[in-house]
């Protein structure tokens, strides 16, 4: 197994982490195939990492203190209360998270990929053909290469997952995330150390400060709600994709802006509605779950393996933890088969648990929202706990603890 060849399909955060894991695990030749040409598109959206999960990943060598981040300490859930500028809090929670910018986090991870790794931008994999001795990848330019192992780090539209489990694709949840970032970080509550969640019938919007990657900060927000069912009001959401401003219908944009104007406290409405249109986009929310993280010489990591709705704040954590588990399996097993079976046994159940928790949270926070206006802290605490029933003290919110670090 040592000095064998590994291809990583996908060069985003999960792909860079997978390449690092493969190198540390002893692979002799590593090729990363990223279909996007040049630098990956960066919309500058926010990523939250729980402080405990950060410490584990720092100790494992996947994150460093030098990566730009902004501290978060509490999460405040607020409902509109007349013209009260910031609304009325219905509940507060400790929120020991670190806020990152997707683009700057990717660039930092990309810089950590060893120099000996062949990172190819603009290399689109079109076919994945496993055999007894490995996997052949066919590319859009007509070329093909054979590898001992192929790691699918190609997100929720993974061609590697489709080769492993045909038809096991992303399932639309029935609602969307409307995302945006702006430079308007003036006068944020608690100097920006709090994450604010504005709640309304049929959804909520989480708002927090992130680094801009250049020494300053941006305001990051994501609003979750069901799109209207009326003809012409929303795009076709059956095929997984992010929809940039040019793809949004004027009716959908008008609906979302009216929802904010009618339901947000004035201060937060101004922040969201003042966001430039070219920094907003629609992200349909999907679930992805697979029966196994590995099959033969194919293995999945990050969103290619499972996609949990964003409410649990653990998507990027899971991708990086997948990488640490893969590194450990490659380093301690004698054959490809033993290594990939060990990886699957460790990460598969965690991925399924995160998907299940995220579905419960999506049900409580978007699909079947409570009467927020009737809530105070005691009611909020009971509502929050109900979403985490059946846990063993490590519910998975913010990501599960790494094996051996509970």
Helix content: 25-40%
What is the CATH third-level topology name of the largest domain? FAD/NAD(P)-binding domain
Quickly count the helices: 9
Structural domain tally = 2
Strand order of the largest sheet: 3-5-4-12-13-14-11-15
Span of the ends, CA to CA: 31 Å
CATH class of the largest domain: Alpha Beta
**CATH superfamily assignment of the largest domain?**
FAD/NAD(P)-binding domain
SSE string, helices as H and strands as E = EHEEHEEHEEEEEHEEEEHHEEEHHH
Summarize the structure.
The protein is α/β, with parallel strands linked by helices. Helices cover 30% and strands 28% of the residues.
Describe this structure in words.
This protein is of the alpha/beta class. The protein folds into two domains: 5-43 and 104-170 and 288-368, FAD/NAD(P)-binding domain (3-Layer(bba) Sandwich); 70-101 and 173-286, D-Amino Acid Oxidase, Chain A, domain 2, CATH 3.30.9.60. Helices cover 30% and strands 28% of the residues. It has an eight-stranded mixed β-sheet. A six-stranded mixed β-sheet has the order 6-2-1-10-17-16. The chain has a three-stranded antiparallel β-sheet with strand order 7-8-9. The longest helix has 32 residues, at 336-367. The model has no long low-confidence stretch (mean pLDDT 90).
Helices and strands, with pairings:
Elements lengths: L4 E5 L3 H12 L4 E6 L11 E5 H9 L10 E10 L8 E14 H11 L5 E4 L3 E7 L2 E6 L4 E4 L1 E4 L6 H6 L6 E12 L11 E7 L2 E9 L5 E9 L24 H14 L2 H8 L6 E8 L6 E2 L2 E3 L14 H18 L3 H32 L9 H11 L19
Parallel strand pairs: 1-2, 1-10, 2-6, 4-12, 10-17
Antiparallel strand pairs: 3-5, 4-5, 7-8, 8-9, 11-14, 11-15, 12-13, 13-14, 16-17
